[in-house]
Design goal:
Two copies of one chain form a homodimer.
Chain A lengths: L9 H8 L11 E3 L2 E6 L12 H10 L2 E6 L10 H14 L3 E4 L1 E2 L18 E4 L12 H10 L6 E4 L3 H12 L4 E3 L5 H12 L4 E5 L1 H5 L5 H4 L13 H13 L4 E2 L8 H5 L13 H5 L5 H15 L9 E11 L18 E11 L2 E5 L2 E2 L13
Parallel strand pairs in A: 2-3, 3-4, 5-6, 6-7, 7-8, 8-9, 9-10
Antiparallel strand pairs in A: 1-11, 11-12, 12-13, 13-14
Helix pairs in contact in A: 1-12, 5-6
């Protein structure tokens, strides 16, 4: 077994990894615990789709030791009461470390900042997705941009020209902004141009936008292809890969958004794909290992200001071949858009804060082993 | 009669006007010909609502010697053929000077710039209004921002956060942008903040947003109150007045958008108000004369790069009381949201390029007297 210690410095990691030759049998390699800054744990309000238990089991199975959960639960996480309800469930159930993002609503412009210590970031929805959190009012959008502490992450679900709006409001308020799940070439070009003009902007991409396009919609089916942002074109997908390689895209984030197969196949299918258990297998071999660690560990940790996880690593067999099968997964949703895909590279074990938390398909960390990355 | 020569310098005009004491009988005063940068002439495709003849008669009756027409005709003015069709009608029918704005469509990103010499500005619709010109695609929006000549005006119909998007795209493309019909306090604050950070942004307000609010909707009726941007709150209206006084708002633009009374009272009432014949009467007495000339003549002329109109002026009786009556108007639409309002101050005559074009309610300029402000 080849040991590669988790390191924060991309350069140092590159040096460690440069001894490996791609394509050859590499044995089992050790990587830092993966961090997913964008998951949906569905608690409260949607625990038939996922909860803090099943969702963090899926995370460990995918090699993630920390997940940051989005606030579009039912009710949404926009006040201290609902926030405490979700955090109490996480405290009891989570098997990997976690944080939550607060939702920016029209009604909590004044109160949001008082909850900043309890959460990782503030999430603003400029466009429509699952849940009631879309915020159309300019005064509220700008109010949140102005009041949310500058040193705390502010994340936006913004598509197309809404990204331009978010960048402008962040610029006028002298604050950084993180753009979730960039999915289109034009969006990436906008972010690159803004960054070149000095904008404090980071962004993420979801695996499904790197591996699926609108051409896959027919084979996925009319409900199962629904996701926000929508699957895009092949040209968009190619631009995302280039952006990931060139460093314009900072993070890989699964946007793990479980809905049951029955919901996806029913009337009014909700948008969203599960992603925690397939992301690493998809990315291994497509990125250099140093690139992979940067976008799945180092950059998310830095951008979201996360604490180090001591004695935490994952072991990956980069040569293990497997076939994606929803029935073998830990997520409660029971389906995956990557069903039947042959992947090479799989998580063998996860060690979280000195404890073996996952090994060969089995979650070993007990419910409650996960810790909040913020004050609890 | 007191003569006040048209002057370009606001300071000089202020000096001329400072001898007048407001409220006292001022006799007939002479002002520069008014310029409306935002009207809808409905030709081609909607001449039962208005055409270049009836619309420019309404303009002269309102004291306007130059109007700039929007491209959301049917078909829209997005190609040389439709543009030529509208300009040919204008050449034959217009009784005051005119220009047209080209429409930014998804299909003319490449071709628009080649038509720049024939038009005044390029109009981009970021939000929904009357007609098919809404442009949602970020790549197309940014393409127009990048390609339209920097020295030519680029106008946006953008509401709320779409204004932020337009400002960002203009900033990234190092170009000025003009925001049409600002209607909300938050929009104005955004524009002020961007300007303070160096953004090259100008904007206009429509009289109906200065004089009507959502509280007037019931008395107007469900169809007749429809306008885009919608009527706003009293707080918004107050902010617009403050913005007009402080100079954050550069222009008064009527957004004269005639639809017949039958259309407004029918199924699916189209949004829009007529405005050319009531604007001056509404504004007289509410702005100082130097402020009025700035926002209704000098600033529009400068922002839209219009040629001087030699030997052109209007004579206004600031003490004339009258009651707004649609039946006495020249617009073909046959109604006004200001019906029955008592106004003080009325146009007595309009002289356009040395010819008496309007006097005491009667249009004297023949059809075809109007000239295109661009190469014809």
């Amino acid at each position: 077994m080849l040991f590669i210690e988790p390191v924060e410095s991309r350069k140092a990691l590159f040096f460690c990894l440069s001894v490996l030759s791609r394509g050859a049998c590499m044995g089992v390699i050790r990587l830092p615990g993966l961090i997913d800054p964008h998951v949906h744990m569905r608690e409260p309000g949607g625990t038939h789709k996922e909860d803090w238990d099943s969702g963090t089991c899926a995370a460990l199975a995918g090699g993630y030791t920390c997940v940051l959960a989005m606030p579009n639960t039912l009710p949404p996480l926009t006040d201290s009461r609902t926030l405490e309800r979700s955090l109490a469930a996480a405290r009891r159930k989570a098997r990997c470390d976690y944080g939550v993002h607060l939702g920016a609503g029209a009604g909590n412009v004044q109160a949001a900042a008082s909850l900043a210590e309890r959460v990782v970031g503030l999430k603003m929805y400029l466009d429509q997705t699952f849940g009631p959190l879309q915020l159309g009012d300019l005064a509220a959008l700008n109010g949140h941009m102005a009041r949310w502490p500058r040193q705390r992450p502010l994340l936006v679900h913004a598509e197309g020209s809404s990204i331009a709006a978010a960048l402008q409001l962040a610029w006028l308020n002298h604050r950084p902004v993180h753009v979730c799940h960039v999915s289109r070439k034009a969006e990436l070009e906008l972010i690159r141009a803004a960054r070149e003009r000095g904008a404090l902007v980071t962004c993420e991409v979801a695996p499904h936008h790197l591996f699926l396009t609108e051409d896959d919609a027919p084979s996925l089916g009319p409900g199962r292809c629904e996701v926000r942002p929508r699957l895009a074109t092949g040209a968009d997908r190619d631009a995302l890969w280039a952006g990931l390689k060139s460093g314009v895209i900072d993070c890989l984030a699964t946007d793990h958004a479980p809905h049951t197969a029955a919901e996806k196949d029913g009337e009014n299918p909700p948008p969203g794909f599960p992603g925690l258990e397939t992301a690493l297998g998809l990315m291994l071999g497509r990125l250099e290992l140093d690139e992979l660690v940067a976008v799945m560990h180092t950059n998310p940790s830095r951008i979201f200001g996360l604490p180090q996880q001591p004695e935490t690593w994952i072991e990956v067999d980069p040569d293990a071949c497997w076939v994606v099968t929803a029935g073998q997964m830990h997520s409660r949703c029971g389906w995956t858009p990557f069903e039947g895909r042959r992947l090479t590279g799989r998580v063998r074990s996860v060690t979280l804060r000195g404890r073996l938390a996952f090994r060969d398909g089995e979650v070993l960390a007990p419910a409650g082993w996960g810790q909040n990355v913020r004050s609890d």
